[in-house]
């Protein structure tokens, strides 16, 4: 298996990307192709010892910046690590692409260069989120901020394939994120989407309210990219704020400080279970190739975890499964 | 000051409402009119001692249920505690109405019976949310799930009045909740709203991403009712899930259990600062009268806090301030 990684994508690239890649190679025995500025990538690589035949570099002279217009990756930065990396997937022997770079650019480049699989009109970014027991798949979290109901239906179908084949859930259920449980809640978009899912989606369980998002209401949760993105960003902000406030409170009391030490294990486990960056990557589904989005602030560990999640997709032949399931309908 | 309270609104009414009202009367010295089924309210009241001249009952034979269609409160349940209570505001000597009942019905009844103040087309529900330092005002959290950009502009203007006159912020800034910081982010609705606010709103600071919602980016945060409702419901769900996971983790370790005991004070302070139900109520702004929405699961304490927040609005003459500021533009 050979995975292409955008060495220049994300806030701390290439240092953290290379560190994560080295760990992934050691731990998963996978082969990695790093795409980026060769001297800089080489310099980072030289800091580690690793099986040399497992990591190679493909040069790319440009970098897509976080504030670049998504369309630039196609029009202007054709020799960017992102464009070059995605284009490698069109050749035999390259199984997947991982990037922690500009989300909009990644969606645009993947759509433009790889094209969509038949039966899917727009790509969606999914995310495995924790549940009180197990996990669920939320899609879309930011590829398509103003979708049509039909797109959410397609997301639901792809999410079912992901949960079934990658996560091993036998017959995944699908829920629609909405501000009320009953049919007829939400804006016109949600009402229409509800009717469509009711009619055409197997295992549709109805609306799921955001306060019940962790309560195992459905294996797959569909939403607009706007709402999905609000949810994951807000979760990040809320957890950060809680951490800041707790730190401030604890500083006021020596007993609380001791308490925190004693609770450290439990708090770390909480973070692991609630913080979905632990899963590492967010699969971009719908394009004709395996593309994984890493968080922009990805640490080396997050990069490694994103590679692990990507390996799972390759092993389970997700693209063939998607084509079989989605194109068939 | 005389505040009308819906004795029958919310999950544990009238018991928790009456308990909260008794506490409010004792603590704030306010006069309360409880609207509801007289025998049931009387039975609850008889459990407490309180200054008798401070609490009176106005009978209403019907109750708006949580799953009633909002329009029923106007068409069918004209003698409900909600309809009767709101109508009292049209008489002299009644200053405000508080209800923890059906949100949609409250919005419909307040709009229908009280009418809008000039210059506002649709009511919005606001919420005081904590910031790392101080607080901000988020509007709309569920009255208007599919607003026009113009409505968000009006919400922003009302939010500024609230923050200035009720919360004492000298020159409140306004931000638009959006999935990116730069102009041009989000769906068509956010782009249009951005342009409108840019052009007409004093102290507009641009987009605020949900991961920065607690970071004092703006004093007033405007969003569609759909997005605002997703945010507050998701916050509730996330905090609940964290609590459940933490409890499970702690049970695994006696040291962690001890840690929790030592941290109890800090954890409680965290909850107080992060949990916005602590503020108690969510003002319905735009209607021609002071209306406060309590959380459906309101405890006695939440009811008391909602009454306190209502008192502040009355004291600061919020309706006159809104009329002066909004109608003037």
Task: Describe the structure in your own words.
Two copies of one chain form a homodimer. Chain A has 329 residues and is an alpha/beta fold. Chain A has two domains: 1-120 and 286-329, Isopropylmalate Dehydrogenase, CATH 3.40.718; 128-278, 3-Layer(aba) Sandwich (Isopropylmalate Dehydrogenase). In chain A, 46% of the residues lie in helices and 16% in strands. An eleven-stranded mixed sheet of chain A has the order 3-2-1-4-11-10-5-6-9-7-8, with helices on both faces. In chain A, helix 1 (15-28) crosses helix 10 (300-315) and helix 6 crosses helix 7. Chain A is globular.
Number of distinct beta strands of chain A: 11
The residue-averaged pLDDT of chain A reads 92
Span between termini of chain A: 30 Å
Q: What order do the SSEs of chain A take from the amino end to the carboxyl end, as H and E? A: EHEHEHHEHEEHEHEEHHEEHH
Q: Percent of residues of chain A in beta strands? A: 15-25%
Task: Please tag this protein with its features.
alpha/beta; 2 domains; Isopropylmalate Dehydrogenase; homodimer
Report a brief summary of the structure.
2 copies of one chain form a homodimer. Chain A has an 11-stranded mixed sheet with strand order 3-2-1-4-11-10-5-6-9-7-8, sandwiched between helices. Chain A has helices at residues 15-28, 38-45, 72-75, 81-88, 103-114, 149-166, 188-200, 225-251, 254-274, 300-315, 318-328; strands at 2-6, 31-36, 55-59, 96-99, 124-130, 135-139, 174-177, 204-208, 220-222, 281-285, 290-294.
């Amino acid at each position: 298996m050979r995975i292409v990684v955008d060495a220049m994508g994300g806030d701390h690239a290439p240092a953290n990307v290379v560190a994560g890649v080295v760990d992934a190679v050691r731990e998963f025995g996978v082969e990695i192709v790093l795409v980026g500025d060769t001297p800089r990538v080489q310099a980072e690589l030289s800091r580690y010892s690793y099986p040399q035949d497992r990591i190679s570099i493909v040069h790319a002279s440009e970098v897509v910046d976080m504030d670049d217009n998504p369309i630039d990756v196609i029009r202007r930065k054709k020799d960017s690590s992102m464009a070059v990396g995605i284009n490698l997937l069109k050749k035999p022997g390259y199984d997947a692409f991982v990037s922690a770079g500009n989300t909009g650019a990644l969606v645009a480049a993947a759509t433009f260069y790889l094209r969509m699989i038949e039966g899917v009109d727009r790509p969606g970014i999914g995310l495995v989120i924790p549940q009180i027991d197990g996990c669920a798949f939320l899609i879309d979290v930011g590829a398509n901020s103003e979708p049509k109901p039909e797109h959410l239906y397609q997301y639901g179908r792809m999410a079912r394939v992901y949960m079934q084949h990658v996560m091993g859930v036998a017959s995944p259920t699908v829920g629609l994120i909405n501000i009320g449980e009953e049919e007829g809640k939400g804006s016109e978009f949600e009402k229409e989407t509800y009717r469509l899912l009711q009619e055409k989606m197997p295992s549709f369980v109805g609306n799921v309210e955001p306060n019940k998002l962790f309560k195992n209401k459905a294996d797959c949760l569909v939403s607009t990219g706007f709402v999905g993105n609000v949810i994951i960003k807000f979760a990040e902000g809320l957890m950060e704020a809680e951490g800041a406030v707790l730190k401030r409170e604890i500083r006021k009391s020596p007993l609380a400080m001791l308490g925190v030490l004693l609770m450290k294990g439990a708090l770390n486990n909480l973070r692991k279970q609630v913080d979905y960056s632990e899963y590492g990557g967010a699969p971009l589904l719908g394009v004709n190739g395996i593309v994984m989005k890493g968080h922009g602030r990805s640490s080396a560990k997050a990069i490694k975890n994103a590679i692990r999640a990507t390996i799972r997709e390759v092993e389970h032949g997700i693209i063939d499964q998607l084509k079989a399931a989605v194109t068939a309908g």
